Amino acid sequence: MSQNHYSTIIIGAGLSGLACALELQNQEHSDFLVLEQSDKPGGRIRTEEVDGYLLDEGFQVFLDSYPTAGQLLDLPALNLKKFEPGALVHLNGHLYRAMDVFRRPQHIVSGLLSPIGNIFDKLQIASLRKALKKTTIETITQRKEHTTKEHLRQSGFSERIIDTFFKSFYGGIFLERELQTSSRMFEFTFKMFTEGSATLPARGMGQIPQQLAEQLPPAHIRYHTAVEFIEGQSVYLSTGETFTADQIVFATPINITRSFLPSLRLPERPWRSVTNLYFSADYSPLGEPIIALNGDNQGLINNVAVLSDLSPHYAPEGKSLISISLLGLPNQEGLTDEIRKELRSWFGAQVDKWQHLATKAIPKALPEHLPDAAPLPEPEPPYFLCGDYLESTSIEGAIISGQKSAKKVLAHAKN
Ligand SMILES: Cc1cc2nc3c(=O)[nH]c(=O)nc-3n(C[C@H](O)[C@H](O)[C@H](O)COP(=O)(O)OP(=O)(O)OC[C@H]3O[C@@H](n4cnc5c(N)ncnc54)[C@H](O)[C@@H]3O)c2cc1C
Predict the structure, then answer these.
(1) What is the pLDDT of residue 231?
(2) What interhelical angle do 15-26 and 395-414 show, nearest 10?
(3) What is the distance between the alpha carbons of residues 237 and 242, in angstroms, rounded to a whole number?
(4) Three-class HEC string of 31-75
(5) What is the pLDDT of residue 121?
(6) Residue of 46, 55, 60, 72 best suited for mutating to test ligand 1, as the one with most atoms within 8 Å of CB
């Protein structure tokens, strides 16, 4: 007969649920079970292999400066491949280099001459780097918040650099180009970019949750197991089974947790959406591991990267894998043709030879993270919240949240 009572049940095997489970295991609290509705771990991070191409679920990067994620993961085993620091910016039909001149000093002259911002912007970036290097993440999370756009303006950045660079660079991170996201998120990511590199695991982003899940005994995670509802300490599954637990961790996105715990009155958080198109080509249009941004403020494309320029595992031999991100969920009808047309102004006629591999529309990518959101209510034990929405909406935030909820579970279990 299978066990149906556990000390702790964790609902969701995204990064936050996995990090929670690992922390419990490390603290020798081993009577736990993770329930996951999908066929594999990772939640919003997954990689699918299709005809020799590795297709991540949306363009995501791992910042190798994430301190907590860096401690939990075996980074050498992920074989992280780095993007060049900085970006190419597509503006008025040209691709300009906007490089991090501290790490790529050879680009200082082209950087100063490029039309992406002015000399004061470049000095401002230097002073922001210096200030944020000295500031801890803890301090950033307690700072007064406003929108990222207000923050950039108050910091003295010109409208030009906001329009040509920040809107697409941070648009790609926040999944919104109006830069309404909290300035704390801006400062956190700016600090992480200053201290490290944007990377991809050589064999796809899905390796990150995979590596965490492999550290747990297989019997402690059940896939294809959706939780339908909770009543007291009972967890009712779609399979018709019922489990009970002394502690129940909701490592599900905020909207799902909200429906499990209606009396808690978690606020509704709108989702930021993104659409990702993958193309295959015989040659890389960029020829280097760098992110290219739309600095024109026109068109649907936000950013372009050739993932096989970072890691050859992303495409079969002799092929390049091109990833195009569009913010929101544009109408799918005729979308490939429209994007190909737009890409012609970036890369010329070669794009007509590219083969469209897949379009991934991701309606629920990131929960909105606006400034001055009301503090979230916390449930009474035996319930515990867990998820990126409690910290920063990022890989680092999800892992921190998982570890914090495990500590709360352990404190409760001891009493
Ligand atoms: C397109 C995209 C781009 C991103 N870019 C970046 C980036 O570049 N860098 C970065 O750091 N972060 C990025 N992020 C954010 C990062 O991926 C997330 O913050 C993180 O993965 C969230 O983890 P989580 O555990 O909080 O939630 P989730 O990953 O959503 O995990 C929740 C889990 O709960 C499961 N679940 C839901 N309902 C049930 C149920 N009823 N029963 C059982 N299981 C259930 C789900 O299947 C899922 O596995 C991006 C996200 C997306 C989608």
Answers:
(1) 97
(2) 40
(3) 6
(4) CEEEECCCCCCCCCCCEEEECCEEEECCCCCEECCCHHHHHHCCH
(5) 86
(6) 60
Query: What's the confidence (pLDDT) of residue 4?
Result: 93
326 Cβ inside 6 Å of ligand 1: no
- Dist. CA 122 → ligand 1 center (Å): 35
Instruction: Report the nearest atom of ligand 1 relative to the CA of 58.
Output: 1
**Distance between Cα 393 and ligand 1 center (Å):** 9
* Residue in the structure block whose two tokens are 């990022």: 394
* Residue listed under structure tokens 């990090």: 19
- Closest Cα partner for 410 from 30, 14, 12? 30
For ligand 1, atom 14, name the residue with the nearest CA. Answer: 394
For residue 43 and ligand 1, the question of a CB distance below 6 A is answered with yes
Decide: 365 in ligand 1 pocket, CB within 6 A: yes
Q: Among residues of the chain, what percentage have pLDDT more than 90?
A: 86
What pLDDT, in 10s, does the model give residues 57-101? 999 999 999 999 999 999 999 999 999 998 999 999 999 888 675
Superfamily of domain 5-45+206-270+373-414: FAD/NAD(P)-binding domain (3.50.50.60)
- Write down the pLDDT at residue 98: 81
Residues of the chain with pLDDT below 50 are 1
Choose the residue to mutate in 16, 44, 61, 390 for probing ligand 1, maximizing ligand atoms within 8 Å of C-beta.
44
Determine phi and psi for 345, rounding to 5 degrees. -75, -15
- Hey, what are 375's tokens? 């503090």
Out of 3.90.1150.10, 3.40.50.800, 3.20.20.70, 3.90.660.20, the CATH code matching 47-81+200-204+271-367 is 3.90.660.20
First to last CA, the chain: 29
Atom of ligand 1 nearest to the CA of 387: 26
The residue nearest atom 52 of ligand 1, judged by CA position, is 365
Question: CA-to-CA distance for 117 and 162, rounded, in angstroms?
Answer: 8
pTM: 0.96
Say which residue the tokens 């909290």 belong to: 182
Does ligand 1 have an atom closer than 6 angstroms to the CB of 359? no
Nearest-angstrom CA–CA distance, 38 and 135: 39
Question: Domain-by-domain residue ranges, the chain?
Answer: 5-45+206-270+373-414, 47-81+200-204+271-367
Place of tokens 């993958």: 278
